[in-house]
Design goal:
Elements (H helix, E strand, L loop, with lengths): L4 H9 L12 E6 L1 H5 L3 H7 L5 H9 L2 E2 L5 H7 L1 E3 L5 E7 L2 E4 L2 E10 L2 E6 L10 H7 L3 H9 L12 E3 L4 H5 L5 H5 L5 H9 L2 E3 L12 E3 L5 E3 L1 E2 L9 E2 L5
Helix pairs in contact: 1-4, 6-7
Length: 243
Amino acid sequence: MGNCTLFVSALKAADLDETLGTTTKYTAFVPSDEAFRSLPPDDLLELMRPDSKDKLIALIKAHLAKAELDRSTLKTRGAYSAETGQRFAVTFVNDRMVVERSKVAGQPTACTNGLIYVMDSVLAPPSQDVLAVMRAHGCGEFAKLVEQSDFKSMLGKDWQFTFFAPTDDAIKKLPAGTIERLMTKDGSSALWTFVKSHVYFGRLYTAGMEDGKSIKTTAGPERPVKSDDVKSGEGTFEWPDGR
């Protein structure tokens, strides 16, 4: 792995290099050296400290799957199960593979006991729940609606959701009194439907979507979505009507 020397160093520091040297089949999603260098310098130094070994092991195992997963298999499954127990989404854009938001370079390299894919960024487990992320990105009013609705109880289960969260500015554009009615006891059913109409069951990424493609929300009806940059695998989705 010529341009992945930092990952190899991390493997050795975590004492995982011998694990990958066995006959057990693995698929490694390896960040390039450039990907590691794009991390904040303090974060990289912290990971390599002896007293951070558990964090380093968890980071490396997030990039490993105990199975030989070729492109065809990953395309069919749409995800891989990492050694940490997490599932990471795999999508394809113009035949280019994307893991979460990390773009994979070229074809995998075959080894005696598996495959190696080289990626342009380091995978990291989420550090905040969806409600905290909403609040941090200007969607605090919608987060309050989710908390008020029965949907909040579903967030503690082992399910994956994609939220198309209206911004606070979008919420303000609703007819006067709408949110107040939704927050009352009599409006609980309408609130449930309103929240569900902004939720997709499963994980969706810009990289795996086609512009104008319709998705089925948990409320039932299909809605078309647009992306400002589908081809690059980046961007933000929005409903055509802005809600």
